[in-house]
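Weekly modeling sync, notes
Attendees: S.R. (lead), two postdocs, one rotation student

Agenda item 3: backlog of single-chain predictions. S.R. asked that every request posted to the team notebook include the full sequence so nobody has to chase files. The rotation student volunteered to paste the first one in as an example of the format we agreed on. Action items at the bottom.

Example entry:
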Amino acid sequence: MIVTLAGHVDHGKTSLVRALSGVDTDRLEQEKLRGLTIDLGFAYIDDGDIGFVDVPGHARFIHNMVAGIASQQFALLVVAADDGPMPQTREHLDILRLIGLRSGAIAITKSDRVDAQRLKTCRAEVATLVADTFLEAAPVFVTSAEDPESTKSLLEHLRAVAGTYTKEIEQKPFRMAIDRAFSIKGAGLVVTGTVHSGVVSADDTLFHFPSGDTVRVRSIRAQDQDAEQAIAGDRCALNISGLNVQDVARGHWLDASPMPAQCELTIGLKVLDTFPRAVAHWTPVHVYNASSHATGRIALLGQDRVAPGQREMIDLVCDQPLTARHGDQLIVRDQSLDVTLGGGAVIFAHIQPSARRRNPERLKLLQAFDAESPRHSLENLLGIGPVNISEFLDIWHLLPEDFDKLLSQHDVLKVSGMAVTKELLGRYQKQLLEQVTQHQAEQASSPGLKENAFIQIPALLRQRLLNAMVQAEVIENVGGFFRLPDQQTSLPPELKQTWAKLEPKLDQLQPPSTGDLAKQTDTPQVQIEKDLKALSKRGFVVHIAVHRFYLPNQLKQVTQHIHQLAAEKPFTVKEFRDKTGIGRNVAIEVLEYFDGRGFTRRQGNERIVLKADY
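Predicted structure, as returned to the notebook:
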């Protein structure tokens, strides 16, 4: 169990840790000279069953204080009897609450400096301070550095709590916030920090943020003991290879999966009741996520102000990139007032800046992610539309098998990397068919609708849905135009006559050029090309080269030959020519047309197939 001490500067936190553990956590020379805790200090007792994190009390070192706290820890709020609760006492308590600590105790120190009446008053002040917080019912222990016996009851309580303290292994990838890095002769680089999720074992490969480099875990110490693994909530030291000591600093992370750098974070901001004013749009702030820190601004999402005591969904626009996951508890401090403004959990982390942050569709998506669990979030999202599976996994930091378990509770299909309910898929099909039908009723001469006309259907789903409807013969695809089957587009009389002459001549795998058609029909080539371009716009033919037009069904046969060739290996022009019987020059025209459509791609003298159709 990790015990985090918090409280005002010079209220005896370091002395209390020394009395409980026998360890002086002030390790820096400046700390010893000034008698002031500047950085985090650590001590362990009972073979690592209990660890103490001594955080700085001075307002100037809030960033170091936040770095030492994680939501799985046990809080020990320290208040000096002579001073009583002071500004940093309240601010530290607020930070503990905002980060999500849920259990703890209270130690009143320096009791030897006051009389019984002052001690009684201090107790009352502490009770007022912690009212309506997670420490409201916490036990209070009166201690003195001058009396070694005074800490015994506190130590007994901590041991009793530690005996019942259990840490659940989260089914999430490993994450650790780094707070120290140093080199040990004969061992190499060692990084220390708090494990925020998952499990790490020796020989695991991890990703380092911000470099993106991979590292290998050589050995582990958890709770100051050699260990085979470390889990969420542990203080641990990892001996790693793959980086140099100068490459690592406080604020960096290790993660089992690659970590994107994010300059925008959407959080559910809870403004503290004690903050002296309403929060305005573009307020400059400091943002803290575990050991990471960035400056930035608050972007409000519709409201004019956020009053003290209110919770609102807001964007944090950071000046330096952070890495965050859904649920990370951030602390936000006002830059001008230099006090804690509030904090909240990450709802959505943005890799790209939001162009229209108040867009109703975007706000609806963010509200769906503002849920207490992945299960509730998925239910909300499926009610809105298709769910991007990779995005959902990344935001919730889930393993694919965990997502499959969630998905099994719903009547859904996986299509093109999206999870979509069967009911919504049916609704999309109905909308698509109605759109095609209405278009043909209103524009009888039109060849049909292109794929990009169906903007109401997400792009990732659109082509798969259209292809499925074509295969089911609900609609047909003629030259890239989608229309109802067995519906010939009406043609002007003169074009209808031309089509009657040209269609039989074009109905072959190697149709004649426009020059040959002109000779065969005794018609000027310019007129032939003008008529064929008009027919192309209506979907009757496909214009593949300057003087070459194909019937859609013949071009479809050519694609089938290409798929057969590419099933075994990349193919050459010669192999394509031999397979189809098409002459070399025409074969090159056809293949270059397919290259341009992204159906095939040339690699040296060979080609590969990139997608199912052109």
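Discussion: group reviewed the output briefly. Residues 452 and 459 are 8 Å apart (CA to CA).
Action items: rotation student to repeat for the remaining queue; S.R. to check formatting next week.
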